[in-house]
Amino acid sequence: MRVVAVMNQKGGVGKTTTTCNLGAAFARRGTRVLVIDLDPQAHLSLHLDHDVNGGKPSIYEVLVEGLPIEQAIALTASEKLALVPAHIDLASAELELAGEIGRETILRNALAELAARDLYDLVLIDCPPSLGLLSLNGLTAADEVLIPLQAEFFALHGISRLTDVMEKLRRRLKRGPQLLGIVLCRMQATTRLAREVEEEARRHFGARVFQATIRQNVRLAEASSHGQTVFAYDAASQGAKDYAALAAEVAKCWEGAAAPASAAAAPAAPTVATAPPPSSAAGSAGGAGSAAPSAPETAPLAAAATAVPAAVPAALPAALPATAPLRPPAPRRSPRRPDASAN
Question: Is there a contact between 93 and 63 (Cβ–Cβ < 8 Å)?
Answer without folding.
Answer: yes
